[in-house]
Design goal:
Blueprint: H1 2-30, H2 45-70, H3 73-89, H4 98-130
Helix pairs in contact: 1-2, 1-4, 2-3, 2-4, 3-4
């Protein structure tokens, strides 16, 4: 049962983290075009909150059972770094540097989570093969 949860949520987490990463990189690279294309909603602050919440929940649901199965500290460290950066990005105080810092933390966190989900998935598969 643990492996089902981990692999299912790893797939969802990989998708959510990748979308988060693409959104942040795309907003930085093409932010000036989004209003002209009628996509200004993608730069809205609520979009980060909307993406961050499921990324965090799915991450925990994938990494906890995965860690219990494979005990890989590499995956745990990558997951904590990624989830911590995403969480911290949502707790920054209102300041002139907030948007820049939030974007950097989110890009870093999304990248760490993509790597962590891939590693988690691979290590869970190895454990299942051994049994």
């Amino acid at each position: 049962m643990k492996t089902f949860y981990s692999s299912t949520f790893d797939g969802l987490g990989l998708t959510a983290s990748s979308l988060c990463l693409v959104h942040c990189l795309g907003t930085v690279a093409f932010g000036f075009l989004l209003p002209a294309l009628g996509l200004a909603v993608l730069t809205d602050e609520r979009m980060h909150q909307l993406l961050a919440a499921p990324v965090m929940v799915i991450g925990v649901l994938a990494f906890v059972p995965g860690f219990r199965l494979h005990r890989s500290w590499l995956v745990a460290v990558l997951a904590v770094l990624g989830l911590g950066a995403i969480g911290l990005s949502q707790l920054l105080p209102a300041a002139s540097w907030r948007k820049w810092m939030e974007t950097m933390l989110t890009i870093f966190g999304g990248g760490m989570l993509v790597i962590a989900h891939l590693q988690n998935r691979a290590r869970c598969r190895q454990c299942r093969r051994r049994k």
